[in-house]
C-alpha cells in the first residue's frame, strides 16, 4: 500500500493543531516567562483557579494529561508558591489542589495575555465564524473523550 503523504497532510487536522500549539507556545514564551510560569503550567493554573480543591487525579483527567505529568507540573507550581496541595480528609491518598494568593495576582495579566493571543488567532474571523470554529473543536474534543472512555470499558 502506498500512502500519499501530500494528500494526507492536505487533510490532516492533527498536523494543523500541532502546528498551532507549537506556534502559540513560541509566540507567548517570552511574555509567559516574564510572569514566572511555563506554557505547560497554564492549563493547570486556570483549572485550579476555576475549581479550588479539585483532586489532583481529577485535574489530570480533566486536562487529558498523564497523572505523573500533572504531579510534576503541580510540584513545580507548588515550589513557585502558586498552588498548595493538601491531603483529602476523606481519602489520605488523594491530594486536593488550591490556588494561592500569588495565583490570584497572576491570573489577570495571564488571562490578558491569553486573550490577546486569542484575538490574534481569530483575526479576520467574524463572530459567527469564531463561534463555529470553537463549536467544531469542542465537538472534536467530546468525540475523543467519548472514544477514550469507551476504550476503558
Beginning-to-end CA distance, first to last residue: 33 Å
Q: What is the N-to-C order of secondary-structure elements (H for helix, E for strand)? A: HHHEHHEEHH
What is the topology, as strand order, of the major beta sheet?
1-3-2
* Beta-strand residue percentage: 5-15%
Q: So how many helices?
A: 7
Shape: globular
Largest sheet, in brief, is: 3 strands, antiparallel
- Uncertain runs are none
What does this structure look like?
This protein is mainly α. Helices cover 69% and strands 11% of the residues. It is built from 7 helices and 3 strands; from the N terminus they run αααβααββαα. It has helices at residues 5-10, 13-35, 42-50, 56-63, 67-79, 101-121, 127-152; strands at residues 54-55, 83-88, 91-99. Strands 1-3-2 form a 3-stranded antiparallel β-sheet. A hairpin with a 2-residue loop joins β2 and β3. The radius of gyration is 18 Å and the shape is globular. It starts with a helix and ends with a helix.
Essential attributes:
single chain; three-stranded antiparallel sheet
Break the fold down into its secondary structure elements and pairings.
Layout: H1 5-10, H2 13-35, H3 42-50, E1 54-55, H4 56-63, H5 67-79, E2 83-88, E3 91-99, H6 101-121, H7 127-152
Antiparallel strand pairs: 1-3, 2-3
Helix pairs in contact: 2-6, 3-6, 4-5
State the gist of this model:
Helices cover 69% and strands 11% of the residues. The protein has seven helices and three strands; from the N terminus they run αααβααββαα.
Amino acid at each position: 500500500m502506498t500512502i500519499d503523504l501530500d494528500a494526507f497532510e492536505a487533510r490532516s487536522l492533527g498536523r494543523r493543531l500541532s502546528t498551532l500549539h507549537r506556534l502559540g507556545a513560541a509566540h507567548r514564551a517570552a511574555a509567559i516567562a516574564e510572569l514566572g510560569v511555563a506554557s505547560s503550567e497554564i492549563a493547570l493554573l486556570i483549572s485550579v483557579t476555576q475549581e479550588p480543591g479539585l483532586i489532583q487525579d481529577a485535574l489530570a483527567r480533566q486536562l487529558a494529561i498523564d497523572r505523573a505529568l500533572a504531579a510534576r507540573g503541580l510540584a513545580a507550581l507548588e515550589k513557585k508558591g502558586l498552588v498548595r496541595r493538601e491531603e483529602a480528609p476523606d481519602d489520605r491518598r488523594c491530594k486536593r489542589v488550591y490556588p494561592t494568593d500569588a495565583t490570584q495576582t497572576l491570573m489577570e495579566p495571564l488571562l490578558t495575555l491569553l486573550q490577546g493571543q486569542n484575538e490574534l488567532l481569530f483575526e479576520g474571523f467574524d463572530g459567527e465564524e469564531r463561534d463555529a470554529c470553537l463549536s467544531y473543536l469542542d465537538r472534536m474534543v467530546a468525540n475523543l473523550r467519548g472514544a477514550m472512555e469507551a476504550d476503558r470499558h
